[in-house]
Specification:
Layout (H helix, E strand, L loop, with lengths): L1 H49 L6 H12 L9 H26 L9 H22 L2
């Protein structure tokens, strides 16, 4: 068991920063793709749900583009970024707890309820720096 803990420690030290960079880059690319591709559909969906002035999704998209311009499809685009920060913060804390559990000799890196709670709290704290100024 001590060999396994030492191996995990070496992996964490050697690849921790590299894995974090990969995770951040992959998350950023996924987040940008989601906003660029998904946000216009979300705007049209919300407009259809909240008003009766459009006869179809295509009508809504056409009128939004014609009357408000292409940037209207990206209103509130910062919200998915906030969600990404929450996920990133939670998974960072979760990985830290898993590494600590493995290093201290637990039979499984599975998190306890209190560690899950602390991971969620860390995510909420990280997100508050973004959402606080936006939602004041």
């Amino acid at each position: 068991m001590a060999d396994a803990a030492e191996e995990v420690e070496r992996d964490v030290q050697a690849g921790g920063a590299k894995q974090t960079a990969k995770d951040l880059f992959a998350g950023a690319v996924g987040g940008v793709a989601q906003v660029v591709l998904g946000q216009p559909f979300d705007i049209v969906k919300v407009r259809l749900q909240t008003t009766t002035r459009y006869s179809s999704a295509l009508d809504a998209a056409t009128q939004i583009f014609k009357n408000e311009g292409p940037l209207a499809f990206y209103k509130w685009a910062s919200v998915p970024v906030q969600v990404s920060v929450q996920f990133g913060g939670f998974h960072y804390a979760r990985r830290q707890f898993e590494a600590r559990n493995t290093q201290t000799g637990h039979s499984s890196p599975t998190l306890s309820y209190s560690q899950l709670f602390a991971s969620g709290a860390f995510a909420g704290l990280a997100n508050s720096f973004l959402s606080g100024p936006i939602e004041h």
